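User: Hi! Is it possible to get a structure for several chains at once, not just one? Here's what I have:
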Amino acid sequence: MKDKKRGEIILSIFFLAFFIMLTVISLGYSAKSRRLPLIVGIPGIALACVEVYRRSIKRPPSAPRRKGARGAHEADEEDDAGTVDFRKAAAMIGWVALLVVMIWIFGFLVTIPSYTLLFMKVRKESWLASILFAGIGFAALYVLFIVALHIELYPGLIFKQ
Amino acid sequence: MDVLNAAWQGLTGVFQPGAFLLMMVGVILGNIVGILPGLGGQFLLAVLIPFVFGMNPISGMALLLGAHAVTGTGGSITSILFNTPGESSNAPTCFDGFEMTKKGQAGRAMGAALWASGVGGVIGAIALLLVIPIIRTIVLSFGPPEFFMLTVLGISFIGSLEVKSPSKGLISGLFGLALSLFGEDPSTGIIRYNFGTLYLYEGMRQIPVVLGLFAVAEMIDLGVKGSQLVTGKIEVKDSVWEGVKDVHRHWWLTLKCSVIAVYIGFLPGLGGVASAFFTYGYAQRISKHPETFGKGNVEGVIAPEAANNAKEGGALIPTIGFGVPGSSGMAILLGAFLVMGITPGPKMLGQNLPVVFAMAWTVAIANIIGAAQTLAFAKWMARLAFLRSSLLIPLILIFVALGSFTSSSSMGDLILTLIFGVLGYFMKVYDYSKAPLVLGLVLGRIAEGNFNLSYNLFGLGFLTRPITMILSLLVLWALIGPILKRAREKGKGRAAE
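Assistant: Yes, the chains can be modeled jointly so their relative placement is included. Here is the combined structure:
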């Protein structure tokens, strides 16, 4: 519950900072170019401030949040849904970032099978399944993108000519 | 009589063995490319244009339109199964389609999406057939002020897209609008918010943003939970046929959304993404159960999918009638017309009327065939949702990376996909709806361009033009309607207590 509140506040502050940045930078543009940024930025700042305030205020434990017609059980479930295992989330974000970095360095053709193999092995799949799945996935994408659609895939920093 | 003759010639032309075979090839390719994220109808048209050199116009059109008409159909499959839209215009299908998959109703969702796509496409083609004689009057009645108010109407649906927390919905929508301001200002040419990078000169690209928000965010969530997309028994309980029947149960919704999409499709510059979001918001507004939208309501699948294919018929109207493409896909098609020796415009409606009718027939027939093809495999494809996360995550992430990169061959797109994947994950966790964000991103740029044009041409007087005033009233209805509805429901609740 606390985690959810803290996370909501951080996300609201992110939006607030974004809208402030949008508005401040727009002041350097011509009148015409800053018109819409201001129309969007100012209400954005106001709404984000309200959201930060709403999430920051403490609610007395005896006065539970109104959930309309929904039952207490559903309300509890919703609160649980907002909790994040930050360690696991960071690990998953790391996996996505790793994919981007691998593509940047090694290109698609090397990354596709090696990333699949690596991910599956770390997630405790068998060697046979990992190699088979990586191979089939690579072959399917190679045939589709390179043979059939003639799309030139990024070769990576190392293999770039 | 001439018109009927031309319609008959067009129909028989499409059923000539060569043309029909080419249309079938086009439909198969369209379905495959539609499934691949980032590769849409425009890509396929560009790839196929070299093949139509030397073909007769009806055969060439059969191949190109057969392929282009059904790309949205294939794109709905990955939206429903993996929360990964095949094209940006499939993004609204994710909201309810993926929720239905999580409930074990993937087959039903796909049945509804695919059949709605087919029916929508046919309605689009019929609209094209009906509108041909009165094209000029309709297109000329819309200027920048009307375009602007139409986009404002679309944006005003933001309020109704977020049920849990209106303030979070508005923040998300404003964030999307703000992102649409990145890049070159259409009216002054000033580059805004590019932070010194060349990548942002053209603004935020929709495909990486949408793929990140939906597909990557979902994969991060799946990885954190460490299970599979669908938990429960590994069998598809519901039938695809049930989804097909859903479309007929909601025939009025299908028809209305298709007609709206045809209209949006034929207005140059608004595009298919706008029509899909617009109809999704509209479906929620008129639904008897708006609170179930985003939680697996089949109406939320039918509306955008019917719109997705119907808009192609609409987009063909100005392309054929004026030589003004209704979308970027149509701009490429225009090039293909010239390759085949056809000059679009009023002359075409006189000299090449059978070819015009052949196009309409092709769109209609291709949509039926495309829907039937994918429906035949839907039951088996639904089982993919039961794959373990360790198998699914790398496959989808690679699929997304390929889609994101191939949309513009830029590493920047991959980084953008990653950033929006992380943001999308936290938005999901903390109940920020992503629909308003995408809606704002899509419509913001169109709204700004048309607002500046309207203001320069008419000052604030543009608000008093008749169609603009009607649209303004609709905007008011869209904004105040949900508040009044909630107030009424509260009143009823109190009376019941």
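The first helix of chain A runs from residue 2 to 26. Residues 88-161 of chain A form one domain.

User: Great, thank you!
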